[in-house]
Amino acid sequence: MMHRWVAAVVSIGLVGAVLEPLVRSPYKDGFPLSTFPMFATPLSGKVTMSFAQGVTADGRRRVLSLGHLGTGAIACAGYLLAGVAKLRLAGLSWIEGAQLGKQIAMDNLRKTLLGGSTAPLARLLVAHPDGLIVLSAGTLGLELGAPLALLGGRIARMWAWGAWGGHLGVILAMNVWFPYPLAWVAFLPLVEAEHVVEWPVRWWRSRRNRRGANPVE
Description:
The protein is mainly α. It has nine helices and two strands; from the N terminus they run ααββααααααα.
């Protein structure tokens, strides 16, 4: 009987969570449940949209569907554009770390003035700007090297782990959270997501087999 009450409470909670965006302002979007402000707010009469195009063998241009691109390609394109934006903002001087240090300082100062939580390593990084050179170069290298992840295999896995570590660095430096990449949702198309469950199962079976081959006396 108890499990029915538990199921009822969990069900009511889930339904309430799903309906919660209906009573929220459409401008207050958030994770994991969205108000979809692009649909819930009035739009202007003219909307400009961008589409990815491909060139056929005979030179014709065709709009590519998401099926052609794959979510992995879209994720890599997003990181690549972030790297290009850094170059357009500061050029190769981004690697010197001054721009990153300024962003860390301004972001944490804003949080302090507004009563928010600052990042745990913000003061240390701003006080020792030489370390920002490594972080700036690493960030730019990961973002500009994002297309290499499309090669798949070990290169894709190494890049995904590097990008994930970069997001951890953003938390430590600016206390800014990006839930989708942190939860590996953004990287699953690049790392053979269908094997995510297979890997721990295979490890557990190999461990059991080793124990069977070497019984404890």
